[in-house]
Fold this protein.
Amino acid sequence: MQAKKRYLILFSAGACLILLFCFGGIQVPLSRRGPTRRDDRSLTGYRSGAQWRRFPGVVQPFSPWDQEESDGYNGHISPRQKRDAITGVYSGKRCRMESCFDFSLCERNGFKVYVYPQQKGEKMSESYQNILSSIEGSRFYTSDPGQACLFVLSLDTLDRDQLSPQYVHNLKAKIQSLPLWNGGKNHIIFNLYSGTWPDYTEDLGFDIGFAMLAKASISTENFRPNFDVSIPLFSKDHPRTGGERGYLKHNSIPPFRKYMLVFKGKRYLTGIGSDTRNALYHVHNSEDVVLLTTCKHGKDWQKHKDARCDKDNAEYDKYDYREMLYNSTFCLVPRGRRLGSFRFLEALQAACVPVMLSNGWELPFSEIINWNTAAVIGDERLLLQIPSTVRSIHQDKILSLRQQTQFLWEAYFNSVERIVLTTLEIIQDRVLQHPSRSSLMWNSLPGGLFTLPQYSTYLGDFPFYYAKLGIKPYSKFTAIIHVVTPLVSQSQPIIKLLVAVAKSQYCAQVIQILWNCDKPLPAKHRWPATSVPVIVIEGESKVMSSRFLPYDTIPTDAVLSLDEDTVLSTTEVDFAFTVWQSFPDRIVGYPARSHFWDSNKERWGYTSKWTNDYSMVLTGAAIYHRYYHYLYTTYLPTSLKTMVDQISNCEDILMNFLVSSVTKLPPIKVTQKKQYKETMMGQTSRASRWADPDHFAQRQTCMNKFASWFGSMPLVHSQMRLDPVLFKDQVSILRKKYRDIERL
Amino acid sequence: MCASGKYSSRGPALIPRMKTRHRIYYITLFSVVLLGLIATGMFQFWPHSIESTADWTLDKRSVHDAPLVRLPVSSPIPERGDLSCRMHTCFDVYRCGYNPKNRIKVYIYPLQRFVDEVGVPISSTGLSREYNDLLSAISDSDFYTDDVTRACLFVPSIDVLNQNSLRIRETAQALAMLPRWDKGMNHLLFNMLPGGPPDYNTALDVPRDRALLAGGGFSTWTYRQGYDVSIPVYSPLSADVELPERQPGPRRYFILSSQTAIHREYRAELERLKEENGEALLLLDKCSNLSQGAASARKRCYKGQVYDYPQILQESSFCVVLRGARLGQAALSDVLQAGCVPVILADSYILPFSEVLDWKRASVVIPEEKLSEMYTILKSIPHRQVEEMQRQARWFWEAYFSSMKAIGLTTLQIINDRIYPYASRTYEQWNNPPVVKWSSVNSPLFLPLIPPRAPGFTAVVLTYDRIESLFRVITEISKVPSLAKLLVVWNNQNKSPPEESLWPKIAVPLKVVRTKENKLSNRFFPYDEIETEAVLAIDDDIIMLTSDELQFGYEVWREFPDRLVGYPGRLHLWDHEMGKWKYESEWTNEVSMVLTGAAFYHKYFNYLYTYKMPGDIKSWVDAHMNCEDIAMNFLVANITGKAPIKVTPRKKFKCPECTAIDGLSLDQTHMVERSECINKFASVFGTMPLKVVEHRADPVLYKDDFPEKLKSFPNIGSL
């Protein structure tokens, strides 16, 4: 018993000690870290390493109102004079729009660009030729210098490397002799290469005065924010228009490719910018990080040859650049002699996420593009960390980086025209200031070139941002009926059509009739009485394009476009509209057509035959977003619109080209094919334009004209159509919401 | 302590049947444990009481206790800020190092009082309340480190918020005396009121070597893009006045000008605008009859009528923020707080945090020269946009302007984003107010890609033991032209799959993966064996789908690679009587889900289902052995904001004769269970992500009067 007792006491004592030790033990390190430090401070007050603590009460606010400011300020010179004084002070390297640009030139005629006439005997590189013709083909072009807001030289300034064969001599004198030069005010100078061996400065070799620079490889040091534009370095083979699509075809999961990080390029043994490329071999592991350099360049590379050269050169020849480009997740873009290199655009197109290693390079179009969403901005000083950095990037992020490279490539880089237009649009945004694009418009589909802020600055007015804003399009539509034949009888199809459309529950306040007929307007009472008001607009010029004018009388997001002879029931209208609400950026409608490549004639063909796919939905019975009216009217060149007006044909094809080039997706056909056009021909005495045999041939011609202006074929085929869920199902018709749609 | 045994007379009563001796032991034991607990409890609380006393002494501590540092006249003066400084030239990135959290470490110098040789302080105010708040906020944040050797960024405790209270030369000398100054490398200064009369420079005049400047009121000529940070001028009213958020919408006034220090030329211009447009404009000035001071700051007057400031700002749609002598105005903060859209007239001004904030969505910037056109310009802005801007303005204030803490931490976050650009916050994170973040979607497969047909799809068949049926499915699917691979997920751990020789011979590779547990979620695992983007999930009893039907489904998926493309569609409905969601099956005119008994989808969604499914949905599905398809529909709809695509007329998978066997009661329990799933998932997602549509996809020539053999998909199946 005694023993037991002792054991018990011993046990309790032990338990007690353990308990104490446990809690105390936890306490010890805690107090060592936390309280002790605070204790120290409370003793000595402000020892270095002490945590900052709030000093309560005793301090005063830093300056609620600057009273002296108002008085001092009012006594000072007038702000108007101050504004004028700026011009003299901030010029040259400190130029900004406020100080070096004359806004008044742009006020009268808007943003118009003048290109100097080309002088005889003046040599010009192909690239510069492409730049100039892109401007001349754009909607900004004016041939009248008196109307111009921006001036572009016809002297080739692209290559300012004195050792280059493209170098234009005596540029300084030639420019000074230009009568409109005006010290370079409102001029923009394009440049790809500046400076030469050995230091490659960014000097152009002539005084640019007040002119803006659109320059490749520009450094942050020389870049004048919101004045210059950084453009990408592009090769002389870069297509003028159209441009190749990105190489990404799949979003494979997991998104990793064979290589993690690759580079293949020249290594400059000495001189400016050689450090980074010379150090690349440290990171190369010849497995998934493959960074290859060659010393071979120029004539006398052997002279500077270092110990690594032979080894590097051998390794370099083992790999194929293209193969690496397509099979790598990341592509290194290190600086060369100059800050930018061709690798950048190559990687972008190949959907190989660029890893920038070029400190101080103002990235292309940095003013508008958020490069963090499409590239990894590295630091040359941290080269050795690059592999671990790219490995740490989450696969979701890789997926989005990669898709963004493709979007940016196609939106701003894939042709000279896009690069030039982007440059001009950036400047236009600065000039107009109030109607200008927000960052979201530039950095999300379909990109800034298709998003015109003059239409609206509100994102919700465009068909592209509903999901991003978490909103829905307005749930009504406005119908526009295009009329070319006079109203003679009440049995004409247009009367039926009007009644049917007006009955739709989604029809907004207005049905608009566009009277493009030569005969005078019929009396008001001739139109049927409808529950919604009918507006009749007399087309001024009676041309085809007027059906796509951005009328102010369209209060809704959706437009239902109709021909006068369209046969459509209320149910069909309703159904098409509910479908459109799911696809607000596409054309949704009934009559579908298809295009094909005619390899015999080597041109595009157009067909209205029964096909298993389609790529166009004609605007005789289609719903689309109101914005496309604006885009059709302002974005498309006058040449195409005039062509459409002259032949009174193809406007629907052009609309399909436009929308598909924006969305890169096919339109959407709803329900079964209807042969209403054909049936109509028998009914109307006057031959409709569809009966004209030339009509079809013209449409073929149109297709090819349009494709050449767009630079490629934007139309995309679809193999499916959308029907009501219970369409033609063997179930009681009473169950079906859109039962009338099944009657052909 | 442990040995001190206590027992009271009540002891025996508690343990009556024990012998005394035993009682003693037990009581001893009991008291020992009790004491032990008390002791530990005391130790637990002991340090806390130390801390609180420490706090108390701190409260008593004042700025005047800070050590005094005398600056010799000859003390070195830093160079003026270098305008060409950029992160890659003037910032030592090695100090930040590589760290997995991608977060910079910020050190704050301890407070010192600097005086010149004759003992005059370098600043008339010393440490201001605002700067004190700012430093406290940094020290409470994740950025803070007290280890000077680990720091990447250094913040001096010398307050330079207001240049007017500073002695420029001495302040500069004080900065240079900081122990880690090193030419200002990696030092960050906060300044809100730069310059002084008469010229009012737009950046702090204190020479500061290479130090970064977080400044209010930068102009484009002093701001070093990508190096400095433009910050707002803090308005003290933010802390004093509480303005409840107002719903965006039209307000009583269209334009309001409430600033007091407006140049008379501009005031004249505003008066002219008021004459032209009358009541729509409200033009306020300071009240002449009120004495100067804090009270006058809260009142504004127009022709003798007194208005409360800043409350009056909430009564206007647009509020003018004109430059004063300085570009940055504290009024901007008040205006944003009131949810009024700022109309900023300050040429060359770098807007606060413009590096990350999209001001075009929250403000209107008008050149000073166009002040007279302000009314016309503002009138051209669509109403819906004004409302969005009002909401955006208020959100900017809440997130980035409302306190010194917000301003300070935003500045640090911006610098952090520069140092770790690959881990930076996104445009959406910076700019979308919570309500938009909640309702908007950013589809992870956002690029409009129609993948080529060639790679085909991988069919994933989940099976347990229905071998005969499985083999039939395999034979049927193998006829689909675009099938690239067949993957059988063998979910039966007790039984091995049949021998290789017994499997049907098909033209494409057939792989069997055996799972460790019989879970439904195994069907959605992103197996490495799936090498195609497109996955066809198919049950081992789906034999009724025709080859055309499946091929067509694949073609439709190619046009909608970010959606679920399936056959029978299902619908969710709100049951008003029960006040909850209900599951609806066949014969509806609408569709919001497709069954994954046979559905095409992107492999990415397998990855999402397995690793990113919110809440406990995954385990819930596995436990209930049901609703994995509903979960998948929720997941996809939630991340893409899009409805699934139902293809072909197919309404159910069961053959008509099977329904009779199933029986009505079984069907009903099934429906109840499925409804329960919808309610459960909706509560986990916190919203109902499913989208309802009224269409299905058919081949272009479906049911058209056209020779069947010329159609691509003649045999599209039945109901």
Q: What stands out?
A: The longest strand of chain B covers residues 483-490.
